[in-house]
Fold ABC transporter permease.
Amino acid sequence: MTAAVLTRVRRLPRLRPGRLGATVAGTVLAVAVLACLLAPVLWPLDQSAIDLSQTRLAPSAAHPAGTDDLGRDVLLRSIYGLRVSLLVGVFAALVAAVIGGAVGALAGTLGGWVDRILMRLVDTIAAMPHLLLGIFIVAMLRPSLGAVVLSVGLTHWLSTARIVRSELLSLRHRPFIDAAVSGGAGRMRVLTRHLLPHVLPRLALATTLMIPHAVWHETALSFLGLGLPPHLASLGNMINDGRGSLLAGAWWASLTPGLVLIVVTLALAALTAHWRDHLDPRVRAELQL
């Protein structure tokens, strides 16, 4: 009987280590997104409300992650802060994808002096520290969600432009492109009908890989006081506010938003890396951001 059981166990489908990690990451990310979507419906939060009788309560059944120095539930505010961070990350990645895709397409399609000028522009911006450049952009605008999205998007399109340009340069001399040109296809038709369909999967992958980076960038700006208004739930704001509670022994005020930030961004990065390897294992180094 033991041999029969062992035989059945061996016949069970096994998950490869990479697939197992992607499954775990996908589950974590699905739970996080579901919590962000259901939180406003199931647990409405008045972000300006305070309760001084519930300040700095330790984690309990009523407050699983405790309360902060204004009596607000830390876990609930962390979920609302994650909503903001993911929203900023997605929209900033889309802004960067549009700018980087346009610059890379122009450089890779036109070539010549256009390519040289655009790539020198990319190199010049890349030489500047992203965080300092983002601080400068936010300082020029009124602190708001849109300002943070523009700040992150305008400082993270460089790698996307390089990826699109390199992909177009590798495709320009393929036989099917030569056949299209010989058949009378113009430059715009070749770009839209033959080149872009091959570039879009890499562009989508690069955009997804950029979301965790954008989330961390937004958190850094909020931590420095240059992101959203202090009363709004943001992971960076919460970590910054929790620094004062650490001295009073309320370690959970900073730990919970920090753990949410780390776990969700690692899950998103792991899931995207699995997609990248499944797309083409040969481009791992190329698509590193």
User: Anything to note?
Assistant: The CA atoms of residues 8 and 242 lie 52 Å apart. The domain at 24-37+73-280 is CATH 1.10.3720.10 (MetI-like fold). Residues 9-15, 283-289 have pLDDT under 50 and may be disordered.
